[in-house]
Structure formats: structure tokens, C-alpha cells
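Researcher: Re-running this chain for the archive, since the previous output was lost when a drive failed. Same request as before.
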Amino acid sequence: MSHLDTNPNHYVKSDIDSYVEIINKWLLGDWASLCEISPDSLLNETDSDELKAILAVAHLQLGEYTQAREILSQIDRHELIYSYLISGVHNSLGKARALQNMRKQAAEHFFNSISMNGEKEIYPAVEKARSCEQYSQIDKIQLWQRGAPCNKKRKFKKLFIDCGGYDGCSVIKFLLLNPDYDVITFEANPELWHYHEKLPNILIKKAVYDYYGFIEFTVDPIDADGSSIIKEKNIDFRRIVSNEECPKLQVECMDLSLFVKELSKEYEHIEMKLDVEGAEYAILQKMVADGTLVLLKKLYAEFHWNKIGLSKIVHEELIDKISILDKDEWDAQEFAVHMRDSAAIKRRETIELFFNKVLH
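Model: Regenerated C-alpha cells:
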């Protein structure tokens, strides 16, 4: 790529920490912090021209023209200079429109300031972070990390319930698209809990089901992806390891229907993801019976009827019962990190740093 990739899943081009730091500060538009970085520290960087172009734009944003010209003179790739100068112009125009209370036009300029190479798919969290930071610099609104999260500023709070949280990949995907939500995650596998430590969610270390109590949880020893509380499910779909050979744990389980009912007293808008390896049938049947299904605005679900010995007829009967609900499929594996390579781990670290700056 010749220019900065604004997709947080692709932030990292190398294992150099300074690249991660500079990219995150650029995405926010934290010009003062960028100006504290010496261009001489980037001499050995693979992407030094690009990073220097970012530093030059930062100095220009603060009116430090001499420093900017000095840095620009060190850059060989002129196309980078042009792209980042245009980016800086859009950012300045965005501030100007913001001062005139022309919010729509300001938003368009801030979007264009981070849309390199004409990209049209910028994650809402990134766009919102840039906009909030620039508004804060002209004393218009408070920056996210200096005040309450976005949802606390709204009349009605929003919640995403992540059931079967795995390694936090769904938290990342959802918040990049919907940064103004609170997130509660359920994950019963102790092997995966540490992945949530730096994410902006509340982790409940329990399984979800149709009652409160304890239940046997069979762990997928291959990649943890197929772990389940449903005895009929083949834990390892490749059949490399039999269910009898898989580790068993006694874990707490929660009545998800009653949990949603209680949360609906605090949250006006609740969306839920169910990827619970077969337990979704008992859970949704209970929610239908309790009348709590209508408390959800949207359901993202993966159904495992063919993996737990359930007939397709029974599956379709449940789908018919929940037909009133707005439903969609869900796949967040692009953000997974468990048993992935070093590049995936580095991407996760970058996204965690970004979230720490804008959502905590």
C-alpha cells in the first residue's frame, strides 16, 4: 500500500512500535503529540517517508511551518506529500466548518481527511474519534476519553450482549461499527478470558442458558472454537478428538432471558449476538415463552442444528417463532487472535490501543 490503510484490522505494516503509535495519533488527529516525535527517530523505519509526512502535517496543523518544511524536504516520495497535504487541508476545513456550526460539512471534511486513496469504508469508530478530537481542539465538545462514553451522552443507552465471546473478536467488530454502545460479554472458557483484559467490555465468566445454576462445559482442545454445554454436539467438528477425550469443566450458567429482562430496565436499545454452539435453541425457546424476545432490537446468531442432532424441521419451527425479530448472520473471525500468527497479535494490540484512546 502506498498510503495509510484506515481499516483498523490492517493498521500494522511492520512490527515497529513507533508505526503503531504514530498511526493511532494520526487517526485521532492528535497533532500536539505527533509534533513531540522527532523525525530523526524514524531513520530506520521501513515506512519512514509516510511517517514523516504525517509529522509534517501535524506541524502544519499547529502553524509550525518551518518545522514542517524541514521534514517535507527529507521525503523522497512526493506522492505521499501531496496526499497528506490534501488530508491536512480537509482537516482544517473541517475545523472551520465546525466553528461555523456547519456540522454536516465538518463531518464530510473530517471523513475525507482520513480517507486515503479515496477509501469510502471508514469504520464509524475511527471517523467519530477524529471528529471528536478536532472538535475538542476548538473547545466545541469534550473528547471521548476525557469524559463519558458516547452512549452516556444520549437520551437512551445502547447495549450489545455478546454471548460466546471467544477471544473478543466480536467486541472489536461491533464497536468499530457501533462505538456508542456498552458491551457485555459472556465466555465460560478460562483459556480465553485474558484476551478481554484490554477491551472496553464487561466480561462475565459464565455460560448462558435457560436457567441459573451449574452445567458441564466441554472444551474444544484444538482451537477452543467448538466448546459447548450441549452434550450431543461434536466438539471437534473434524473428529480429530472425540468428545470423551475433551476436557470437562463445571461452569456457572445464567438464564439469558431473565438477564435481558433486567437489563431492559436500564437500556432502551439492546442487540445480541448468539454463537453458543447449540445452546441457542433452549435460550430462544425460553425467551419466546417469557416474552423477552421483543426486548431485543436485533439478533445476530449462528445456528448449530446440524451439529447437535436437531432436525431441520425443529430448527425451522424456531426460526418461524422468532420471525418478528430483526436477524442477521455474524462472523468476526477477521478480528480473532487466538492461535493466530504474530501479525494478528500485533493488529490486536493496535486496535486495543485505539480503543483505549477513544472509548474508555
